[in-house]
Write a structure and sequence with these properties.
By secondary structure, the chain is α+β, with helices and mostly antiparallel strands. Helix content is 58%, strand content 9%. Strand 2 and strand 3 form a beta hairpin. The longest helix has 23 residues. Keywords: Metal-binding, Zinc, Zinc-finger.
Length: 340
């Protein structure tokens, strides 16, 4: 596939192409790097944006961290990067080698010298704290994982001092997603309990920063939904105390303005078990009893949340475990819920 200026012009609208030309002329395209058939660069605009171009048999594909960067090569930053690359000669690197299959890699490693393998692992562990923690845990070290680095990573990605406008929101939530990926990785690495706590910390940070980010495209809701998915997966893989978990789920649900943990049932039922579910029900019903009598036009957030939790109790678990002595059943809960 031969890429040319005329091809880039056809892929972008006239305005984006002209702006891309101006960005290139102003020297705003930096660090153009070619890796096989992929070109990456950073472009200075309202903020610094990351651009990736892929040359495929079907044509030129582009992605950018700006709000319009998911539309192929149509944004001005992709245009500027394309032109900068073409200005440098438009050369592509060596084709990337096909990845070695797990079977072949395992066969190779089984024949390697033990000392060489140890050196490779030690070298990798120096730059990968999760790997080092896994090795330390396997060696018998208690509390091998230290979550401070990932806490710092979450803070740097989420806890922002200044307002992020619409133009910067895409890049902001991209960084947030990368940090959440590090938390999610802990589940498969054997540190699910640490992932539970870090997921809850990430939710705290997202709540505290929510008013400082333009959320017109729903990035905040997507980030919160992902953290809740990570939290559930970590709870399923880990061994949280069921009663303490129930207390945290209810406390967060009734204290947040962002509808966190509103629909934990039935997903968390197995994790909570009978003890956790009983505590969860106890706290929700306690909150229900303390609500003042409903007045006309009373639409308080607390009333909405507690009513929603009561209805979820009725629909999700009332009919299945109330018969085992865990409290009032479905019909009774549904009868009581609308009256407060």
């Amino acid at each position: 596939m031969v890429v040319s200026v005329s091809m880039v012009r056809k892929l972008a609208d006239e305005r984006s192409f002209e702006r891309g030309e101006r960005y290139l002329a102003a020297g705003q395209v930096r660090r153009v790097t070619v890796d096989g058939s992929t070109v990456t660069a950073t472009v200075d605009g309202t903020r610094t944006y990351r651009v990736r171009l892929d040359v495929t048999p079907k044509g030129l594909c582009g992605r950018c961290s700006c709000p319009y960067g998911a539309d192929g090569v149509s944004c001005k930053h992709c245009v500027a990067t394309s032109l900068a690359w073409l200005e440098q000669g438009g050369e592509m690197g060596e084709p990337r080698a096909e990845p070695l299959s797990d079977k072949r890699l395992r066969l190779f490693l089984s024949g390697c010298d033990q000392e060489w393998l140890i050196e490779q692992l030690m070298t990798a562990a120096k730059s990968d704290r999760v790997l080092r923690a896994r090795l330390a845990a396997a060696a018998g070290q208690k509390n091998a994982f230290d979550d401070r680095d990932i806490r710092d990573r979450l803070e740097r990605a989420i806890d922002i001092p200044d307002f992020v406008d619409y133009g910067g929101a895409y890049g902001y939530f991209l960084h947030v997603g990368e940090a959440l990926g590090e938390v999610e990785r802990l589940i498969g690495a054997g540190f699910a309990d640490a992932a539970i706590i870090l997921a809850e910390y990430a939710l705290e940070l997202l709540e505290s920063s929510a008013e400082r980010v333009d959320d017109s495209d729903g990035g905040l809701s997507e980030a919160i939904a992902r953290v809740e998915e990570i939290h559930l997966a970590a709870c399923e893989a880990g061994s949280p105390d069921p009663v303490e978990l129930a207390e945290r789920l209810v406390a967060r649900a009734v204290s947040t303005d962002y509808e966190l943990f509103l629909d934990v049932l039935p997903a968390y039922e197995e994790v909570l078990g009978s003890a956790g579910l009983a505590r969860y029900r106890e706290l929700v019903e306690q909150g229900w009893r303390t609500l003042p009598p409903k007045k006309p036009d009373d639409y308080s957030a607390r009333r909405f949340v507690i009513t929603h939790l009561m209805e979820n109790l009725a629909e999700s678990s009332g009919g299945r475990w109330a018969d085992r002595g865990a409290g009032t059943g479905r019909d009774e809960l549904l009868r009581r819920a609308p009256h407060r």
